[in-house]
Amino acid sequence: MTEPPAPDDIAAPEPASSVRAAELAAYLAGRMCHDFISPASAIVSGLDLLEDPSAQDMREEAMSLISSSARKLADLLQFSRVAFGASASAETFDARDLEKLAQGVFAHMRAELQWTVEAPALNKPAARAILNLAQMTGAALPTGGVASIRAVQEAGAIAIAAEASGPRARLRPEVLRGLQGQPLGDGLHGHWVQAYYVHLFLTDAGGRVFADVSDEKVVFAATVPA
Q1: 8 lies in a domain?
Q2: Of the candidates 104, 62, 63, 51, which has an alpha carbon nearest to the alpha carbon of residue 82?
Q3: C-alpha angle 131/135/139, rounded to 5°?
Q4: How many angstroms separate the CA atoms of 171 and 217, rounded?
């Protein structure tokens, strides 16, 4: 699997800033609402078309819009329940179930997902890390490409590597700041808060996360105690 970048290859992370819990919760809620509002609005638009007497010739298109948007909304909700939420009382997650959640999100992205996880199950911090890094990897490929997600368990730790390869692969500056535990400077809160959240829960679990950028490639790497 792709080796995590050496500390010398990236900017050294700074201590986490004192973002208030209420502020962080607001940013996370805003991020999820942003993801959900598009398919939810599309469902409403489809229903409006079905109820419009002058648009009965568009009934088939309306049903298709409702169906695809409802599927996207359901995929995002199921993903977010594990990636951002507590997911009931579960402390370990079947790697096959995590793959299904990731594939559900990538079904609505331009990038292709390649999933290689050797461990049959992952603990909660590792499960959250691999899902969030997978989504961030897909977001790093706005025009398409391949997102390779790999994880192995060895020497009492779980190592995760998420590699985005494709034309125009990029890492937003606010994502890098978030992964380093730095406060948001310029940029969008939605991109920053996901990365900052990953930094927080991995640090709390005794793990680490890194990012490395090269020509047409972005690599995220994380280690989590098993």
Answers
A1: no
A2: 104
A3: 165
A4: 9
Give domain status of residue 69, yes or no.
Answer: yes
The residue segments making up the domain with residue 111 are 20-225
Task: Give the count of domains, the chain.
Answer: 1
Termini Cα distance of the chain: 18
CA angle 118, 2, 165 (to 5 degrees): 110
The tens place of each residue's pLDDT in the chain, 226 residues long, gives 444 444 334 433 444 446 888 999 999 999 999 999 999 999 999 999 999 999 889 999 999 999 999 999 999 999 999 999 865 567 899 999 999 999 999 999 999 999 999 889 999 999 999 999 999 999 999 999 999 999 999 889 999 999 999 999 999 999 999 999 998 887 788 999 999 999 999 999 999 999 999 989 999 999 999 9
| CATH number where 107 lies | 3.30.565.10
